[in-house]
Amino acid sequence: MGAQSIEVGTEPPSPAEVVAVARDGARVGLSAAAEGAMAASRAHIEELAARPTPVYGVSTGFGALASRHIPPELRTRLQLNIVRSHAAGTGPEVEREVVRAMMLLRLKTLATGRTGARPETARALAALLNAGITPVVHEYGSLGCSGDLAPLAHVALALLGEGRVRDADDRLIPAADALKRADLRPVELGAKEGLALLNGTDGMLGMLVLALHDLRGLLTAADIATAMSVEALLGTDRVFDADLQALRPHPGQAASAANLRLLLAGSPIVESHRGPDDTRVQDAYSLRCAPQVNGAFRDTVAHAALVADRELAAAVDNPVVLSDGRVESNGNFHGAPIAYALDFLAIPIADAASMAERRTDRMLDKARSFGLPPFLAADPGVDSGHMIAQYTQASIVAELKRLAVPASVDSIPSSAMQEDHVSLGWNAARKLRRAVDGYARVVAIELFTAARALDLRAPLSPGPATAAVLAALRRHVPPPGPDRHLSPEIDAATALVRDGALVAAAESVTGPLA
Questions:
Q1: Is the Nucleotide-binding keyword given for this protein (predicted)?
Q2: pLDDT tens for residues 447-456?
Q3: pTM score > 0.85 for this model?
């Protein structure tokens, strides 16, 4: 596991810390402040548990069964049963990074001292993370209200030594065996602790944080691909001038246009047709309006990041222990704020991808490419060039449009109409993950195609920044030639887009890009 260590306290973790735990195996521990806050709230729960007055989640059933008062001798079984019964997910396994993010975020909420869980229960969850034990969580099961109940129940089940997990070597084994090998003991739940481990929006929030991390890098890569397409299509950079962009003062638009100016600075290709001999008045929308579209995408990411930051600072549970010791029911577990942000992001992904595909298609069409060979083929007719790469890109874009249909506008009542409106935020998060993956491939195919087109513009050469990107790509993808197997080259380009290598190549010339 990772060497980095993160202290989980009463203050929220940063998005970067969530990514470090989820993807890099960073270790976690509880701060002294968190232990103190948890001990104080636990004392209130113990006192309430001793009273004859029913308290939801402490001495009552759950959901539509909350009207039943549970006698003291059945309360341990009550907490055990909620975990077992709610671990009802089905379908494929959810990715390890998602489960680890979810575990950290539930630990974060326990550490606030607002759930009434014991410090030792939180320490057990941290120990599970540090041992690299990842509970098996399934694709289907969450309605996003009361939070991600079924996914979190599968995590809690592993704490009890039940269900299945992936160990640090990714072997699928019984949770009891994994705990024993890691020298960990199963948790014995106290009053309210079963509910405290389940009642949160941690799955959908974890997926939002991971998506935002990925999209920030992809947005910069998208600007790089756009700049290369502008050069390849003999477009102008004048439309990206700061004074023109300032007429519509959206911050994302300004950032995207600034990137394009840096990336196209000193381009011999752009300079080659800057003059009275160029009779074109305007470029096509897919070139001219790129900062407006990619910029609006950036602004949507900024809004979603604001939502994520607020949620990271939240304590989502029901009932919740307040600072004065009151234990109150509430609706903070409803996933609507996160669900909307997840759905919002899927819309500009589909639109920006659609614009990227139009630029790709333009480079392949001899009627619109200003002198490039049909489909960028070495011997058009004998060779097909990038014809089918564009088909692949178009297929992904079509799927992205379907994934842009919001999940959060739907609701299926549950729990005998007690839970009569749900967010379906988990569903929004799952489709966003697929959309982010598709968008990375769309950007890669545009960049991969633009690189071939730039090579075919020789003896004209691209600007210093895009030339550096082209050189970085060529270390993994060969230059133009007769037809060859394209799938591995597309995958190589996608990997370079995802890991930031092409952004780093551009920034070696431009300095930091937005």
A1: no
A2: 999 999 999 9
A3: yes
